[in-house]
Fold these 2 entries.
Entry 1:
Amino acid sequence: MESIFAKYKNAGRDSLIPILQDLQEKEGFLSFDSLLSVSRFLNLPLSKIYGVASFYNQFKFNQPGKYQIQVCRGTACHVKGSIKVLDALKRELKIDAGQTTRDGLFSLEVVACVGACSLAPVVCINGEYYAGVTPDSIEKIIDSYREKKEKGE
Amino acid sequence: MKIEVNGNNIEVKKGQTLLDALKDVGITIPTLCHMEDVFPSGACRMCVVEVEGDKNLVPSCAVEVREGMKVKTHSPRVLRARKTIIELLLASHPDDCLYCERNGFCELQSLSEELGISERRYTAKKPDYRIDNSSVSIVKDSSKCILCGRCVRVCEEVQGVSAIDFVGRGSKSVVAPAFNQGLNLSSCINCGQCVRVCPTGALTEHSNIKELISALMDPDKVVVVQHAPSVSVTIGEYFGYKEGTDVAGVLNAALRKLGFKKVFDTAFSADLTIMEEASELVHRIKNGGKIPMFTSCSPGWVKYVEQFYPEFLDNISSCKSPQQMLGSVIKNYFAPKNGIDPKKIFSVSIMPCTAKKFEAERKEMASEHGVPDIDLAITTRELAKLFKMFHIDFQSLEPEESDNPFGVRSSAGKIFGVSGGVMEAALRTAHFLITGKEMENFEVKQVRDLEGIKETTIKIGDLELNIAAVSGLGNAKKMLEDIKAGKKQIHFMEVMTCPGGCIAGGGQPYGLDKNKIAQRMKSLYKIDKDSKVRCSHNNESIKNLYRDFLGEPLGEKSHKLLHTKYKKRKTNY
């Protein structure tokens, strides 16, 4: 964190977003404690910082899971029933979009178009794309990652 | 400068906003996000008017008057726009008015009525937010919030606290502390200004009416009450009195009707506070103690210093507030003297303030056996509700005196309710303590108005004191920074958390009308002017209390019962 702040000597409130971006890149998400440090560094109220950060989709406030699941909710995927896929994932993982499972294995995120409309509906897990996903196929996909974890991969 | 409004020429001042200019000639424009003395945000668009030559309707709160401007304030186009705004706000509003805390006092409700809204034109999903009742002072129900931003602006711009802000975006926006945490974990100082300015039921005080009713009905409890100096000049507004009318006598009678066994006056303990605080000031000056000394009556201010300026904690007077002092002498003096077990006493205070609820629950405010000085603090608004619930008719009651031994006050204690009042009261007694003579003219005119920062120098004997009376914590922050930087040499500073003092406290009647606040101030100063005893040290009941029980100001008993100390508090800033 200090290394990031060092880059922004004498910074004012206009440096808030670049600092948040650097922080997220380094730590994967914006934690309460790190935002508190930003608040002290910039002498800005924590509520203001969270207000700004929560406005933008790019900022995350939960530690991402080992496997980061992105569900495409773009137009084509929507037409092909991605809402049901998302619901099935929420049920399977027992979390909401934007959250991480308690064991830290999975995090679930909704994204706009991933540019793979011909494969709709698409789910992407750690960069791996799953095409034509149905609610019924969710369990199998998730289980395959659970097994991966078991095997220590 | 002249402008034309609805076909009539009117004279306006250069630099005025259109909204203010129209107000001056008696034309009311509805507003939602607008607040006097705060930079206009133009967020709600309720105040739109038609200006000839402008393609779009313009928000009158954010537009300056221009020579020759032609304005229509209630044209069909304007009315339609205003109506649509309310209809859109109502689309996702719970509109459960019958069950709402603000029923009858809601700006959204009255605008809907004024604009003739009679059907639901738009429907949207009703939000289902969890109610935040984590704070002892304030409850937040985001489903009733219309995102006007008054609370956010008052918290940031007036109070300099910024406990809350807009979180999220678009239809998912809410007003909340960082990470959507509860208000109890945020840097909120409980002042309740957000509640006072909220137009809907989204922010309300944490109501303790239920607990109070149970206590009143409990035969094993001796329920006593005290009412704060500013309450008697505001509660009348709920019962048909003109704003600022002092109804102290009728209030005493009404409180007895509710079932309180004893009705005491917090202005009495304000006198007691002055005895201790003026002595402390003199002691600090004579013995090279920490200067400037700050007053400690306002619990929002105390928490503010604990959180944001802990380096100034020793500058805060060690005196408990009048609420706590009275609570303490009720349980430690009145109770044993009357053969009542202090544990059986249920001590209630009626306060203009939501932060008093927090203060009453502080660990510092209990005896060593854990008996709290005050059992329950309720606001002026809650009391008005209680009177209505019990169908107590103010108009039919005869004024009554409050009860001894804590019923007689000087008018110095009474002006505690207004910014500058504590200062003035303290100076009257400090003058006597230092010179042995009464002040020539009791009135310190320089601290008597609704300005946020009032500074002056006064002479007591050969002593020259730089004094300041400050209200609104944003102003207090400025002073603290100046004192820190050595730009100001102040000896004694009074700070009231709410702008104007307790008469505009977070527990007072809802609304933004500054004229009402001015009337309340006038009323308190009139009481002072008409009063025979205008100094705390001349209050016979106070003299008796010292003779009979306390000994002397700053003495051993006082130290134990009437003084306290505060600690640095962690905060999310």
Entry 2:
Amino acid sequence: MDNNNNQPLLRLEHIGKEYYGNRVLSDISFEINPGEIIGLVGENGAGKSTLLNILFGNSVIHSTGGYDGNIYLDEKLVHFTTPHQALAAGIGMVHQEFSLIPGFSATENILLNREVLNGSLMSYVFSERVSTLDRSEMHKRALTAINTLGVNISPDMLVNEMPVGYKQFIEIAREIDRKNTRILFLDEPTAVLTESEAEILLSALKKLARSGIAIIFISHRLSEIKELCSRILVLRDGKLITDQKSEDLTLRQIASLMVGRESLRKEEKLIEDIPEQPVEIGDINETLDLGQKPKKKKKKKPALKVEHLWVDMPGETVRDVSFEVMRGEIFGIGGLAGHGKLGIPNGIMGLYPAGGKVRLFGKRLTLNRPRVALNRKMAFVSEDRRGVGLLLDEPLDWNITFTAMQNQGRFLLGIPYIFQVRNEFAMAKEAQKFIDALGIKCTGTSQKAGELSGGNQQKVCLAKAFVLQPDILLICEPTRGIDIGAKTLVLDTLKEYNKEHGTTIIITSSELEELRSVCNRVAIVDEGRIAGVLPASSSAEDFGMLMMGQNSNFVGGEEVNTNEKEGENIA
Amino acid sequence: MFVAFLKFLMRWFQRLVLVAALIALGIWLFYIGREHQIFLDNKTFGDFKALEQVNVSINNGETVELMPRERDMKKVVGPKFEIKAEVFDDKGEISNTITKTINLCFSKDIMINLPAFAGGAENFIVPSPK
Amino acid sequence: MIRKFFDIVANNAVPAIFILISAFAIPLSGFSASYLVQELLTRIGRNSFLILSLLIPIMAGMGLNFGMVLGAMAGQIGLLFICDWGVVGIPGMVLACLIGTPIAIVLGIFCGHILNRAKGREMVTSYILGFFINGVYQMVVLYLMGWVIPITNPTLLLSRGYGVRNAVSLMGIRGVLDNLLPTVIAGTEGAKQFLNVNGANTYLLLQIPCLDGAIRLPLATFIIIALFCAFIIWFRKTKLGQDMRAIGQDQGVSHSSGIPVNRTRIIAIVISTVLACYGQIIYLQNMGTLNTYNSHDQAGMFSIAALLIGGASVSRASIANVFVGVILFHLMFIVAPMAGKNLIGEAQIGEYFRVFVSYGIIALALVLHAWKRNREREAARRSMRGDK
């Protein structure tokens, strides 16, 4: 793409951002030229959203101390403090959550608040808003924008009657209808599209780029990035790891750059020992569906068998998930945020509407009934400590014994169903046992749960689950918001519990390293479906590939997939 | 910038004109829509003696007969009205007919002293009763 | 298919129930068709304007504007002034509107600001706000008028010298709008009778051969109402109307595209309040008497009930809903007392119906609205899931 004076359209210099001492972005520098399509890749938490917020002038940046570094648009220093400034300067953003008015037509949405007006005398006296809309002109403009994208949508179609993919196109059409849009950010635009819709989108974007608009394309789907983008930027832990031409990188390299954390691993010492619990090779093969005949076919009944589970959890939708967990296994569920990994345990436990088939030790589990799940000796530790996990205003002994009291009738004195009172003594004793075992820092069993630190609150939630003496323990984000020392303690506790009691544990976490250090096997969830299940000892790269939508069948390091375009060395 | 300011000024000027027009309209409505009470008084006023009988009609409406020391009231909408008074003398014949158009402007009620009115005096309008 | 049928039933259940009740009660009441038509025409003329003023806030997503009673109070203050000054006829009515307008604007801005702080709870807030302003109004009318605010007409004031009395005669403007273009629809027989009684000159006469009796039609009022409907239709086509429709559906999206959400909402409430002011003046010129402390009380409730009966919902209302609603609601008013008396000897049942139905229908509409909103949200999430 030839630009007029060979100067970059957008240039970032040493951009950084700190949130109250927590550095999320450091020393980001790169350039974009007109007509270039750049792929931005990174796990959640890598800093992508922060970078977007900075470039787009969102108030969350401005109100928390601004950002470091400089941004140059056409080599002129710019500083946006509101999205409207960014819009006026020619930067458009298409978010993941649709910003559309459902009852309006495509035309009305494309021209939202930029409608074409018929001037009149009254508008002069009162305000422009009193003029009527020139609908035929609006129709023409909308049609132009839609045709620029090369898609076939009627401008008069109502948004709430459109398939999801079309809505995405309308969003983009809105940005390009603005006369001066020169840079377009697209945040996971293909997440909700079907394959055919995604293809149409990609060709539409290429068409746009040819007309001179620079596009920054954020996605976790490796194949799309490779196909569409001329350059790829990889972000990890707030730093720009790589900025290379897309043809110079293989898919594996991108995945490895995205998730690989060689140095960190050593520091955190989390990969001390991969658990001794033997997992038969046969099981792995079954799960991966390679078609290889296993040597010893042991028909072991899985502790938990999930078939075609769907869960309606806002933000973590699960579409179609099937997997098996063996008795005594520590099973991990990982994946990028928002793809559904948290939805799985929440759905199984009945906290959100769910459907599909779940078998617990061979017997069907009724879904949507938390009580039933608890009675079947499943325990759940929610990712939402404060909201779901704890009674913040109640003392610790209450919190620790409450679920057991309600579901198993323990810690009560008296005659069941007729008259019962709490056995305060037993409650306190049990609570103290766990306070000692888990090292919960508190002033005593009667301290209110809300007063504890995050890490200790998490330990209380764990204790509550352990009291139930469950057969299966579902834990979500066990170490979120906890300091390093407490993290290790929590993970070690889980390992010990599994060893001592043989409890099957299913851990859901966004930290891949954690899962790899504790679990036997790890499943990766991608867009509401299981992308694959690998033994924990598999390389970080392999997991990275799964997260990037490479639903490949591969064992260890061997690749059998055909997703790569160029013939490359198989590692 | 200057153009924008001028536009701003013009717009507010036009709004001011509009508001002023509405206020003027209000005043005009008040003027033409007000209902006034015309009190007709047949009482001795200074040199003018009370009339034997006088027939008064306002705007060619119903005629009202007034004997000495009688008082009557008629309602009128609008500032102008025509009052016709026919004075009867002792013999029962019309001795005098006076027609006049009175403009009330913004006063509400007035009382007309008929003897003075009939006698052609200038100040026949006397303070109206409370 | 079944879902569509269910939707149609759900949307039109309320008017259907009312048609049923009326169909049952009309023959019971023993009223003649021409009497009913006459009464209905009068009531349509009297009430439609008030109900039409509710449409714009619904369009802007602010629900049912219980705060229209603020406009009613503004109109009543205007009427008090013209009674004091003795301005009569059409000029009197117009002047009352002129005086009421700035008061209604101020009250509307006040109401709008408060509703902006109570997003999502506009209806309850406006309901309570109505009570509050009622208190302020009563203080103004009961204490300040005749004392700080000069009122000189003794027929208006209480015997203690200040404060307005409860029943104020509006003889000066009684029926002025209704009778501005006096129109009569009559059959040949009725026409003859009518002309014999009333004289031929001043009336516009429409003859329909088969009609029994003579029906007076307040033509000027209907023309004003038609103009208002035209205004609403035009308003929807303007940018302001478009902005309001956008805000009514999704405030977040509207805000992020630059529409001044708070300001637009205030404008919607101000327009509604001012129109309620005019509507109340039209209503009172038909009634002929102003109950200073009571007339505005039920203005909001009955108008909203009528609108809902016409098939409107908290989030969607059309002009058709207004007229269907006013006809059905008032039809029930007219026939229920007589039907009740003829059926069970209790004429009081009419009053009972009136109150029970008004409140009941509003409660029903609010519940249906909340239920529907939940269903829509769930459906949206289902579609994001990929239709499973």
